[in-house]
């Protein structure tokens, strides 16, 4: 079985003048506390590291994302509660250092069909793009959907912007005939359901 350093060296393919890929791999692992730490490094930080650059950074980010997906295969689940939303969404939110908005697309029976990242922002803010959310659901023939996003700060308490965004999404979903199943904020091991206002009559 190959070591973490050897696997990373294969992804890097080459190092810098005087430093081979194995040495560059060892340096990256040491700087970020191993594979787990390296997997959460922002793409621009990776690209800025000596010997990495944009192409290698993209390869590393893609490899880590594939690893996350392989470790958490999508099973056929039914979204019945906020707990169900959290369980699915954590696969795409845990370890992220930027705020990320995920939409869970469901069929008419609330069975999960697709999980889509629709927005990724800064370390402390990500817009909830109502149009992109609805387009994602309709494009995948969804009939219902739920939202989740993370707070990298560790505080799961919804902000006023989160509450307003939830209301906007709820209203827009009603207009196009989609059922909105809720919105949760995830922060480390904690999560909070954003309480929507009553739907417009």
* CATH C-level name of the largest domain: Alpha Beta
Give the mean pLDDT.
87
Helix content: 40-55%
**Looking at CATH, which topology of the largest domain would you report?**
Cytidine Deaminase, domain 2
Task: Please give the alpha-carbon distance between the first and last residues.
Answer: 61 Å
* Continuous helix count: 8
What would you call the shape?
A: elongated
Order of strands, widest sheet: 2-1-3-4-5
Radius of gyration: 19 Å
**How many β-strand stretches?**
5
The H-and-E topology, N to C, reads as HHHHHHEEHEHEE
- Which stretches of 5+ consecutive residues score pLDDT under 50? none
Named at the architecture level, the CATH assignment of the largest domain is: 3-Layer(aba) Sandwich
- Derived from helix and strand composition plus strand pairing, the structural class reads alpha+beta
> Could you name the CATH homologous superfamily of the largest domain?
Cytidine Deaminase, domain 2
Proportion of residues in extended strands: 15-25%
Q: Number of folding domains?
A: 2
Question: Main β-sheet: number of strands, strand sense, barrel status?
Answer: 5 strands, mixed
